[in-house]
Structure formats: C-alpha cells, structure tokens
Amino acid sequence: MRVYVLLLGLIIGMWSCEDFLTIRPKSDITEEDLFAKPDGVEDALNGVYAQLGLTDLYGQNMTWGIVDMPTQYFKLNGEQGENRYQTGRFIHDGSSARATYETMWTKMYQAIGYTNNIINALLKKDESSMKYYSIYLGEALGIRAFLHFDLIRLFAPHVERQPDARGIPYVRQWVSKVTPFSTVQEIYVSVLKELKESERLLLKGQENMDEGNDFTNTPQIHFNLYAAQATLARVYWMKGDLDSACIYARKVIESGKFELVEPIEVQNMVAQVINKKECIWGIFNSELSETYGKSFYGIGSIAGGGITTDLTLYPNAVWTDRENLYPTGGSYGNEMRVGWIRNKLGSSDRKSYFMKLLIEDNMEASKPDYGKGNIAGVNLIRLPEMYLIAAEALLEKEPEVALEYFDTFIMSRGLFKFKDQGKVLTLLDIDKERKKEFYGEGQEFYNMKRQMRDVILSASTWQKLTGNEEMYTLLIPDSEFEYRYNDNEENNIDQN
C-alpha cells in the first residue's frame, strides 16, 4: 500500500469522539502529546472508529451501499447510482465502480494508518505506563487485522482456491516508502496472528479491569475481546478451517455476554442502532438518519424538509421478491424478518419497498429511539453469525449439535424448529438463513465468494452469470501502482 505522504499523520488527520456522541478535531496537539496520557490514546482510538463509520466505509459502502450490491438483494436499474449498478452487475472495470473502489481502498488504508500510529506509539511505552495499556493495544491490533481481512476478501482471489495469488499490502508502519504486496495466504497468516495477539491482550486487560471508565464501559462500540474471538471465527470460516471457526464461535456463544433477541424484538432491532443483546461489535454513528434518509427516501435534508412522497426520487427500490426471501406461515412459522422490507409510508406500490431493517418508519423524527441501552450506529458482528458458523462446522461431524445451534437461532426469528418437524438440516438451509439474516450488513457477498456461486441478475432479463474469480474480486485502484518501482514485485499486472 503506497502511503499517503500528504497526510501528516494524526497531527492533522486524527479525529476523536467526545463522550461517543460528538466529533472534534485534534489538530492543535502534537503526536507526542496525544499519546502521553490515556485520554489521548482513547481519543485516537475513537478517531479510528469515527473514520470507520464514514459513508465511504462501514457507514454505507462497506456494508449495504456497495458490498451488498452483487447479492441481488436490490433490483438495480441505474437510478441508484452508476457505481452501485456496475457493482451489482459485476462490471468492476466500469469507471464509476472503480472510482468508488478507490475511495473505499484509500479510506481503509487511511484508517489502518491511523491505527498504526497508535500501535507504534504504544509499543514505545512500557505496559505499566497506562492502566488500560493492554486494552488499548489489543483494540488497535484487532482493528488493523479486521480491516486487512476485509480488504483481502474484497480485492484478492479466495484463499482456498488461490492462496499464492497476489493479495494486498499488509501495512504496519506509517512511513514514506511503499509496503510490498503479500500473497493471499500470507495476509491470512498475518491477520490470524494479530487477532490472536489482540485476544491475548484484551483478555489480560479485562482481567485487570475494575470499575472501568467511559471508554471501557462501552465495549460494544470497541473492538473488544469477543470481537476478536468472533472475527477469528469469521476468518477461519472464510478460509475453510471450520474446526477452528467453531472453537471461536463457541467461545463467544458460551461467554454468556450476548443473547439472541426475542421474536417480538426482531423488526426494529438494528434500525440505526447497535443492538445491546446481539451486537458483538459495532461502530457508533449518530448521522445514519440523514445518510439512510437520502438513500431510501430521497430526502435532500431531513432537518430542512421532512419526508418526500415523490416515488420518482426513491433511489433504492429493494428487491421485490420478499416473499421468497422471507417465506412465512404454514410449516415455516411466523417469520419476523419479513418486516425488514416494508412499503414506504403505507404505499401499496411495490417499487416503494425500503429497508426497514436499517431505517425507522417515521423519518420525520430524525433520530430513532436509543432507549433500553441501545447506541446509535452500525452493527459489524452479531451473535447469529456465531450460531450459523457453529451449525455449519458441526453439520457432518455432530449433526444433532449442529441442529441445536440452528434451531436455537431460527426460533429467535419466529420460525419452527427443524427438530420438531423431523427435518434434516443441510448446508442449503444454513445458507438461506445467512442470506435472510445478514441482509444490509455486507456479509452475504463473502459467502457467495467462498462458494463461487452462479448469480442470476435481478433485472428484467434475469441473466445468469457463471461464478468465477474475477466476478468476486474488486479491482485494486491503478493509483496503488503508480509509485512501485520494484521489478521483483508484481506491480505491473494489468488491472484493466
């Protein structure tokens, strides 16, 4: 990854969350001052989280905004934006798609750069210098691994099929020289190594914690111990090591720190909020009402004009076959997630379906209800993923245990248990639940990629595309190769 030299590190670029509710710049202090005290380290970490919540990253594009487009959740027709249309049609070399990919790539590496400043500053200090040193360093290492993992999943071939293919740069320093590319397999090795170190440090920090403070008492909006374990489960699942994935998924489930919601809670559980029961890690963001309002209501400004009822302004007509996505009644039970796709403002027009999963019905109230312990933001890892990983991992070795995990999960969504109906659990059943559950969260694409699925485009022609590596690999920006002069590095590979 070429380092963006014009960015003067955290001295200029770092932002922080104040009381997790407002964002303020830290441009008036030096880097040495910033990391001299715990408050400065916490501000720096909060600045990284603020970066991750941007619309270019997990506030939109790294979740439903771009990464969900190839899943065909949305019936794309070009009105949603040319970049989304091209991504949804796997036209990765389209100019609009490439421009968006470059922004995502750049912002991710900027966040990695900020994280590296924190890590390197902490490594220069003694562990005894700060009470929560282990927590700070564990969080930062976990974030760095998490971001590199998502980059390798998006911008490189799948690890099981092409482990020795060119991957991405694994950047650990904020320096003026470029970081060489590593192979896909090498990136996975680095990600796993840092996640395990993150787990070790966070476990140590948690054992030494007493009453905590405002920073440590809000673990769900930090890369916490269980986020490290859940991400390890996700990484092992992606690379095909299901035994290891199951070990970490069970650690999270059996920790007792999280619980599946009741069926009655499903419909609104993540509408602009980090769910207090199921969310393992999420990103604080209090601006989602405006972001989602523009995308799903065609609102220019919520504060300035409220809701428009002009459907011609509605840019994101959701995939309309919701009955097949969320079958309900009869032998299924009462599928509560069907309410995640609702008619806009009570309209009967199918074009007006919108993502109730992400947005409140009444946008006139510009902020959702954050009561009962919920926090405004985006859910990045939730407990259901751990149940489905465990079910898949045990499907052949311990089918009865796999079924127990699966049934426990689907019951929380209002569905009847397979065991009570004498049904045999299959991988297809698990895949269907994944697609239903992670709608809007940017996770279904990765399951499609690991399985190299064929895709039927949700358009009038219903064209079928045969799955291949190029379909499931976003293009690394050309700008990444502009300053690479090492002939031994594969920096001249044609990306066009």
From TrEMBL:
Domain of life, per lineage: Bacteria
Keyword Manganese: no
UniProt-annotated location(s): Cell outer membrane
Residue ranges of every copy of the SusD-like N-terminal domain listed in the record: 85-236
Keyword annotations: Cell outer membrane, Membrane, Signal
Domain RagB/SusD as annotated: residue spans: 343-455
UniProt-listed Pfam families: SusD-like_3, SusD_RagB
InterPro entries according to UniProt: SusD-like_N, SusD_RagB_dom, TPR-like_helical_dom_sf
Family membership: Belongs to the SusD family.
The protein's name in its UniProt record: RagB/SusD family nutrient uptake outer membrane protein
Biological source species: Butyricimonas hominis
